[in-house]
Every structure is written in C-alpha cells, then in structure tokens.
Write a structure and sequence with these properties.
- One of its GO terms (molecular function) is ATP binding.
- It is a peripheral membrane protein.
- InterPro entries: AAA+_ATPase, ABC_transporter-like_ATP-bd, ABC_transporter_ATP-binding, P-loop_NTPase.
- This protein is an alpha/beta fold and 306 residues long.
- It has two domains: 218 residues, P-loop containing nucleotide triphosphate hydrolases (Rossmann fold, 3-Layer(aba) Sandwich), CATH 3.40.50; 55 residues, no CATH class.
- Helices cover 37% and strands 26% of the residues.
- The strands form three sheets. It has a six-stranded mixed beta sheet, sandwiched between helices. Strands 1, 2, 3, 5 and 6 form a five-stranded antiparallel beta sheet that branches.
- The longest helix is centred in the last third of the chain and has 24 residues.
- It is globular and about 75 Å long.
- The protein starts with a strand and ends with a helix.
- The structure holds adenosine-5'-triphosphate.
- Adenosine-5'-triphosphate (ATP) binds next to strand 2 and helix 1.
C-alpha cells in the first residue's frame, strides 16, 4: 500500500532523511521507532505531502505521490505530531471537514463522524470548540480527523503522546480495527508495549534511514533482558550456578542478572523472596543495533586498510 525508497530531505546543512525507505502492506501496522531526530516525523511529512523530498520515491496504492499528489493524498489520513485543528470550529465540524475532504457526503459523512466520535469517546464534546478541549480530547480529535474518511493508508505520528490510559486504549482499539479492515498504518511511538498491542512490525530509524526491519520476535528475541532478585535468606552469590553467577552483580541489596533468557535464571534453583523480570525493550534493541553498526564500521575500516 505504501512504498518508499531512497528518500532524501535536507534542511540547509542538516540531512533529515538520508536514503529512507519503508514499505507497508495493506492490513499491516508498521511501528516506526528510533531516537529523537532519527527522521520519523520528516518521513511522515514527506509521505503526507507536507514536505518535499530532495530525492526518492513515494508510491501510495500504486500512485506516485510526486506525479499525482492529489490522487495520492486522497488515499491517506494523517495525524501529525504537532496538533493541527481548527480551534474555533467544534469537534463535529473538524471531523466533518476532514470526512468531506475524503469524499464523504450527507448520511455517509454523518455516520462516519458519529462512528469515530463513539470509538474515540468524543460523543460528549462533539459540539465543543476544539480550542477548548483538554490535551487528551484534542489528541483524540486529531486522530479522529485521520480516521474519519476510512483511508487506505494511515499515518499516525505519536498519536498517544501525553495520553491517559483511557485515551490510549480507545486510540489503539480504533487503529487495530482499521488495520483489521485492511488499512496500512505507519505508527510512530517511543513505547514498545503499544506496538505489541497493535501486533505491529517494527522499523527502526536512525540517522535518516531505516536500519532494521522485522517482527518484534526477529529483532528482539535473543537480546539480553534483566532479572532483579531480592536474595532471600542467603546473599551468597556462590549459591548461584556458575553460568548465572558470571552475569550477576549486587546492587542496593539486590542481585541483578543480565540474561538473554531470564526465566532460565529462575529455573536455576535459586530461591529469592522477590523477582522482577525485565524483557528486552527498545533501549536494548537500539544498543545492540548501534554496537552492530560500530562493529561493521570497524570491519569496513579493516577491510579498507587491508
Ligand atoms: N524544519 C526543519 N528545519 C531544520 N531541521 C529540521 C527540520 N525538521 C527536522 N529537522 C531536523 O531533521 C532531523 C530529523 O528530525 P525529525 O523531526 O524527523 O526526527 P524524529 O525522528 O521525528 O524525532 P522525534 O522522536 O523527536 O519526533 C533532526 O535533526 C531535526 O533537527
């Protein structure tokens, strides 16, 4: 549904996109992750036609977005990171406007507005000016403007930033429903659990390009997580099996063990009074990709020298 390749976007001397390429299939939620400044928002802006790339291709539903921007734009709904609503218009008017831009009219438009308001728990504030909404209500309304036209491609840039648990749950359910109905979704976030809830594939951006792409299992399985244990009656590290002991350290009265297989640490027969298992997360993934890149650079340097 979305194919992009070789995207370059420069701002003066800064290169925001440096050969960025990402493909998303119908029904797929692609979780776009990466440190601040990796190029995620610039990518969303380029695909949405809000920023012009210096090079590269954007194809939406078979339509080249640079050659036929209007046609391509009709296929997508975007919720930008910086909220952009008409503050003097009511929530209903904002939703109607975006629904109309997507080609909906009369009954179909009214029905779509009601549906999205109900899904995103906006029914009670439909007639309130958008400028008077709380932060969470505003974020839900922004997401609503992206969803209301039932686009084939959804671009959601940190849609749950600053959202309370109810807002988050409503948004995630609405996104899941769109993907289940066949929409392709690009979803940027800094929270891995959200992407798990969405059953998303992962795309890791760094330095203006995608450096890793795959399922959570492909990218995170095998990375070391962590087990923290209160040691119980004995604080004797020697009671730990040697393989576990080698990766253990004592910290503020707790034992901390780094392991790619945390449950195996517990199966080793040690009996702590409390246990906290942290499975590998985004930090671990970024660290492992950075060290892989550093190794590749060193290898490259060695080959060049040879
Ligand atoms: N309008 C602009 N003018 C100058 N530089 C820009 C502009 N927009 C983005 N950049 C730069 O391009 C790079 C990528 O920024 P971008 O906002 O796309 O990152 P991001 O991955 O979305 O970060 P975040 O997680 O903080 O949202 C950054 O170095 C940023 O400073």
């Amino acid at each position: 549904m979305l194919e992009t390749e070789g995207l370059v976007k420069r701002y003066g001397t800064a290169t925001a996109l440096d050969g960025f390429g990402l493909t998303v299939a119908p029904g797929e939620v692609a979780g776009l992750i990466g440190h601040n400044g990796a190029g995620k928002t610039t990518f969303v802006e380029v695909v949405a036609g809000l920023a012009r790339p210096d090079a590269g291709r954007v194809v939406i539903g078979g339509t080249d977005a640079r050659r036929a921007p209007r046609e391509a734009r009709r296929l997508l709904g975007v919720a930008p990171q910086e909220l952009a609503l008409y503050g003097n218009a009511t929530v209903r008017e904002n939703l109607r406007l975006f629904g109309a831009l997507a080609g909906l009219r009369r009954t179909a438009l009214a029905r779509a507005v009601d549906r999205v308001a109900e899904e995103l728990r906006l029914t009670d504030v439909l007639d309130r000016p958008a400028g008077l909404l709380s932060g969470g209500q505003r974020r839900r309304t922004q997401a609503g403007t992206a969803l209301v036209g039932e686009p084939a491609l959804l671009l959601l840039d940190e849609p749950t930033a600053g959202a309370d648990p109810d807002t988050r749950a409503a948004l995630l359910a609405a996104v899941r429903a769109r993907a289940a109905a066949g929409a392709a979704v690009v979803y940027t976030t800094h929270y891995l659990p959200e992407l798990d809830e969405l059953g998303a594939t992962l795309a890791v951006a760094r330095g203006g390009r995608i450096i890793a792409r795959g399922t959570r299992r492909e990218l995170l399985d095998g990375l070391p997580g962590e087990v923290r244990m209160s040691p119980g009656e004995s604080t004797d590290l020697l009671r730990l099996p040697p393989a576990v002991r080698a990766r253990a350290c004592r910290e503020a009265g707790e034992l901390r063990v780094t392991s790619a297989d945390p449950p195996a640490v517990l199966a080793a027969g040690y009996a702590p009074t409390s246990v906290d298992v942290r499975r590998p997360g985004l930090d671990d993934l970024y660290r492992s990709l950075a060290s892989r890149e550093a190794n590749a650079d060193t290898e490259g340097g060695r080959h060049a020298a040879a």
